[in-house]
Design a protein that fits this description.
Blueprint: H1 27-44, H2 59-67, H3 71-89, H4 98-123, H5 146-152, H6 155-178, H7 200-203, H8 206-209, H9 211-230, H10 239-261, E1 266-276, H11 291-311, E2 318-320, H12 331-340, H13 342-362, E3 365-380, E4 386-400, E5 411-412, H14 430-437, E6 459-463, E7 485-490, H15 500-507, E8 519-525, H16 533-548, E9 552-557, E10 561-564, E11 570-574, E12 580-589, H17 594-598, H18 601-633
Parallel strand pairs: 1-2, 2-3, 7-8, 8-9
Antiparallel strand pairs: 1-12, 3-4, 4-5, 6-7, 9-10, 10-11
Helix pairs in contact: 1-2, 1-3, 2-9, 3-4, 4-6, 4-18, 6-9, 6-10, 6-18, 9-10, 11-13, 12-13, 15-16
């Protein structure tokens, strides 16, 4: 060490030089920072929706990660933050599976642990990278480079770190939402950007970037605020970065305002009637009522609602019943059940006929969730008898046309829910599968079959011709003095409406400048969970409307059923925990978005940049260690 350089010059800025920072090196202080971020984030999301808190919610956590001395410690505190966050916001899973709840939050916390390490190692978000000595590169920490010092002590360096934190955070959030140890079955839940669902002006950039763009902006604000604190609340070092962040927020808000005011692409769409049952379920699959009672409720409620609307001269084009409300309506199942048990078969046929009668009588199309059973097999039971089961069992959407015909068009759910609709590891790790089955209320035969990944059914929605007082336009043919109207809609089932990539594929078209469908119809059964889960589900789902500029109609058992317009405005909701109907004429939006065409490109770019930085950092560290090793041999 040169004689003119004293050891005091190597004090880490914000650590040894500030007595207040000792707070970060006590376990009580660290836990308090973790809890504070978890609390602020929880308040930001639905159902509490204190969305402004999201702009500072990560600051305590970022300060903690910055001041921790080792990557292992950072990983552990990162994991703890993630685990507590998901426990606080997904506690309702205990009603389905307590072991599964704790297993899930322990696993999801790992992403926050990984994020903490990446921020420190890739972005340099750590105190020992901000050495103030000119010779800081001589520090005993081999990962500190002269470039670290340069970045940390200049306005450009502060901006680079703030943007770097946002890039890495967004990349890890996307990774969590799309990939897991189960394969491509990630959990796109509690994305930071979801918290802004009430601040719709900022949310409109989702038609370009998806939710990831909103997350990116939020993290930039959080990282800037943390940098402000790290710099001793001195504004000058972080002022240029503040200007850039503010300009980014203003640009996003102005873009959003313009998109929300643009009416040129809007037109009147179909009128949809949503039916919300209220049959809570338990983890055995029981719905709190017999199938016969469920059938009668939907038939009677729908008939009464359509009769009232018809009397008021208000027509309906589409009726929607929620997920899994009907039994197996497919021909093979009806015939097999009739031969096996004529009484049950007759009840199933009566329901099938009654649905067709509603469609034909009121000239409405009807979509309902149900199960589809094929490939019936016989299996010995434990008592020596035998029973029959469907080897191919699917969660589907059935469709009846407005003349009462049972349509060949149907959608089979593609993204199945692990532990709820299938048990993972059955063929890859059989011992682990058998262990998990001990916590599963279902038998082996319950496992559902997923739909074909490319079978993204677009249902035709035709309005029955009626007298028109307005001349036909745009070349529409006139038949007997009437103007026919047709639309297309897609129907992601349940949590599939959280998968932005899947939904964008549903609307993607090979025809330039045109979407393949006009409307998103979601059928969901949230009856398994408590009252705080439905608002969170709806909060995440509204971004599918913004991303693809389409209206959404949601029919949800136990709620929340609602309509969402193409800018994310929620209307005509049916609150959770009650039964009822809601009707609205949706507004079709012809805008064909960047997100629909290219999907989560913004997230992919963030992931690519993170990967490049990670590889570069690893190569740089290896290159620096090699001369040290060679000199030690000499």
């Amino acid at each position: 060490m040169p004689a003119d350089v004293s050891p005091s010059k190597f004090k880490r800025a914000g650590v040894d030089s500030a007595p207040a920072v000792r707070f970060f090196h006590t376990w009580i202080g660290r836990i308090l920072l973790v809890l504070l971020s978890v609390l602020l984030l929880t308040l930001s999301f639905a159902p509490l929706n204190v969305w402004p808190l999201a702009y500072v919610a990560c600051v305590p956590w970022l300060l903690l990660i910055y001041h921790l001395r080792g990557n292992l410690t950072a990983f552990l505190y990162g994991w703890l933050t993630g685990a507590l966050l998901f426990l606080a916001n997904m506690y309702w899973l205990w009603k389905v599976t307590v072991p599964g709840l704790f297993g899930l939050v322990i696993y999801l916390g790992l992403y926050f642990g990984i994020l903490a390490v990446l921020l420190r190692w890739v972005v340099g978000w750590r105190a020992r990278a901000v050495a103030v000595a000119p010779a800081a590169n001589q520090s005993r920490d081999p990962s500190v480079t002269p470039q670290d010092v340069s970045r940390a002590t200049t306005a450009t360096g502060t901006l680079a770190r703030v943007v770097g934190v946002a890039v890495v955070f967004t990349a890890v959030e996307w990774l969590r939402g799309h990939y897991s140890v189960l394969g491509n079955e990630g959990l796109p839940w509690l994305y930071l950007g979801h918290s802004q669902s009430l601040f719709l002006s900022i949310c409109q950039i989702a038609d370009i970037t998806g939710v990831a763009g909103i997350t990116f902006l939020l993290v930039m604000v959080n990282a800037w605020a943390a940098s402000f604190v790290i710099n001793g609340l001195r504004l000058r070092p972080v002022l240029p970065t503040a200007v850039v962040v503010l300009l980014a927020l203003c640009a996003a808000a102005l873009y959003g305002r313009q998109r929300m005011l643009d009416k040129s692409s809007l037109s009147t769409g179909p009128t949809v009637l949503l039916v919300q049952a209220n049959f809570p379920q338990d983890n055995s699959g029981a719905k709190g009522a017999t199938q016969r009672q469920i059938d009668r409720f939907h038939i009677q409620t729908t008939t009464d609602a359509l009769a009232r609307l018809n009397a008021a001269n208000q027509r309906v084009d589409l009726v929607v019943w929620s997920e899994t409300m009907m039994d197996a309506l497919n021909r093979e199942a009806r015939d097999f059940i009739w031969n096996l048990n004529q009484k049950k078969g007759q009840e199933l046929q009566d329901t099938f006929d009654a649905i067709g009668k509603i469609a034909a009588t009121f000239r409405v199309n009807l979509l309902t969730g149900g199960v589809r059973m094929t490939d019936w097999r016989e299996k010995p039971d434990a008592d020596g008898s035998t029973f029959f089961y469907a080897a191919d069992r699917r969660n589907v959407a059935y469709y009846f046309s407005n003349i009462g015909f049972f349509s060949d068009d149907r959608y089979d759910k593609i993204k199945l829910v692990p532990f709820g609709e299938f048990m993972p590891f059955q063929h890859t790790i059989p011992p682990l599968y058998r262990l998990m089955m001990t916590f599963n209320p279902y038998s082996d035969e319950y496992t559902l079959t997923r739909g074909d990944n490319d079978a993204l059914t677009r249902f035709p929605l035709e309005r029955m011709p009626q007298p028109s007082t307005i001349p036909a336009t745009s070349g529409q043919p006139i038949q007997n003095g009437v103007v026919p109207r047709t639309w297309q809609f897609v129907t992601p089932i349940c949590f599939e409406d959280l998968d932005a990539t899947l939904v964008a594929r549903m609307f993607r078209s090979t025809e330039t400048g045109k979407k393949s469908a006009d409307l998103l119809v979601n059928i969901t059964n949230d009856g398994w969970f408590g009252s705080t889960q439905p608002p969170a589900h709806l909060q995440a789902a509204i971004f599918r409307s913004i991303e693809n500029r389409v209206p959404t109609a949601r029919s949800v058992n136990t709620g929340i059923s609602a309509f969402v317009d193409s800018c994310g405005r929620v209307i005509e909701t049916i609150p959770p925990g009650i039964e009822g109907t809601s009707v609205a004429t949706v507004t079709v939006d012809d805008r064909h978005t960047f997100f629909t065409r290219f999907g989560e490109m913004f997230s992919h770019v963030c992931a690519a940049i993170t990967s490049i930085l990670l590889i570069g950092r690893a190569i740089g560290l290896a290159m620096r260690k090699r001369p040290i090793a060679q000199s030690s041999k000499l």
